[in-house]
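ENCODED BACKBONE
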Amino acid sequence: MPQQVVTFDKTLGHDAKPSLPQPPGLRFRIEPNIESLSREFAMDINNVEKRMEYTRGVLDEESAGGDPIALFQRWLKDAIDNEPMDVTAMTLATSSPDGRPASRIVLLRGVDEGGFVFFTSYESRKAEELAANPNASLTFFWPTLQRQVRVEGHVTKTTRQESETYFATRPRGSQIGAWASLQSQVLPNRDQLEAQVAELEQRFKGGDVPCPPNWGGYLVTPKVIEFWQGRESRLHDRLRFTQQPGDVWLIERLSP
């Protein structure tokens, strides 16, 4: 299919699109005038960032200790006490069999010596990718504390009992939503989703909402856990814990 290249100048504004006729079979590719836009974009980015310095804390080997799960639990407690937003939000990264990565935000619902637990539909894109490649990474970011934690590990499903036990603690609306949503599938319109919710509310009226058969938990068993503490002049503290045979963790400091 032929393409027509349209170049626009910064005078049009960042969101402006040229109002040109589009004949059938012709696609437009918008190409900015990079020379005229680059300086303006750089100024915008600098205004947003405000060159923050990271001075809230220090991470050293002595205070970290030898157990990364215990350190994570301490940091999570600090986040609960200090962060204004949902501290259990984490980026889950997976990849397709041919190596195409995908990431999304999910919520941590448990952590212990065995690893990190989250719940989702077993028919979602993330579930399909984990079935083909059962390895994933997690990233937590707590900006008020100027901290990040990155986890790499192997992923397995939780038991059905664990999934049902957690599902029973969810708000009823979220339980209904788990039944109504064909997660990651194309939805013609929102009306269809809301109609499905209304039908399910009638179906389960007056009774408990059971855990859907295609919904449950995943356990990320960590092989690598990296802790990042922001430091001044971008000279951040990074400690990496790598699991060794015999359930021992190798601790290494990484360059920032």
Notes: The chain has seven helices and eleven strands. Residues 3-49 form one domain. The longest strand covers residues 215-229.
